[in-house]
Amino acid sequence: MGRQGLDAVLFTSIHNVNYYSDFLYCSFGRPYGLVVTGERSTSISANIDAGQPGRRTFGENLVYTDWRRDNYLRAVQQLVPDGGRLGVENDHLSFQSSLKLEAALPDTEMVDVSVECMRLRMVKSDEEVALIREGARIADLGGAACVEVIGEGVPEHQVALHSTQAMVNEIARSFPHAELMDTWTWFQSGVNTDGAHNPVTSRRLERGDILSLNCFPMIAGYYTALERTLFCEEASEAHRRIWEVNCLVHDEGKRLLRPGAVCGEVATALNEIYAEHDLLRYRTFGYGHSFGVLCHYYGREAGLELREDIDTVLEPNMVVSMEPMLMIPEGLPAAGGYREHDILVITADGNENLTGFPYGPDHNIVRSA
Question: For the chain, which end, N or C, has fewer CB atoms within 10 Å of the first or last residue's CB respectively?
Fold first, then answer.
């Protein structure tokens, strides 16, 4: 705020409101916000939530009602005097919301702070790293719960439910004052593994199926993940070959994550390994991304992703995944999606891997007892 000469900032995104106040809002079609000035921090919440936002907010809370149209903007006007410079999130405000805000504060200069705030979030505090470490531990427990129930004839959704229940129970035990929300599991089998974000179905597992395990414990709005390739009872030689190459890329990728490494250069180096095995055309997305206050519907820190077009330099206390994925299209030998995923903290001289769940053919061909 000082560098840009801002009188106040109005945060409106789920991730920034949570990051700066510890209040994780549920919009349900209503606007929320957090106004930060040099002296105070105040969340703005809808009356439907009653006292919960005030109990969670680090700072003050102002409640608006639905009794008059645009009461949210009247709340903003109470907290932001017209005529100064106001920081806003241009990557979150819709065109309509921007027009309404400008009409409510006609003499105020709106300044986009979204990119700079993202960069601030990219480097984690020691406290954030400690929370993410706990999330990684709980994700490993979710993975173990998945393996407990994998077997021929078991439907995907039953595996996912068992994993999610195990993670929620452990979050409740480890963080007794936390809100329990958003933890989930994607568990895919067979052709359903071809997309990393494919939803869970009732498809029943078959012998020889490729499986994709994806566990996501959510603690205080912070995202962690465990993702692994597995097989039901057996894996063909064709499947093993693709799987082993992907594990090779995973190993090399983890080695490359260290301070001073450039995100785009890491991606280019790993592309060469896939190319050597004539598999580069089956790569589907970047090799990893940042962790922190994010979920599948908020908070992506796009400046810290392992893609060719990202020139961010890694530095200590950044937290990134290494998650190479190959997708062999349906109808080809060894069809399916292959992905391994670890969470790594960049340290002063390398990295620390927070993920403990094993990977590869020696560990994750799940056979019935």
Answer: C
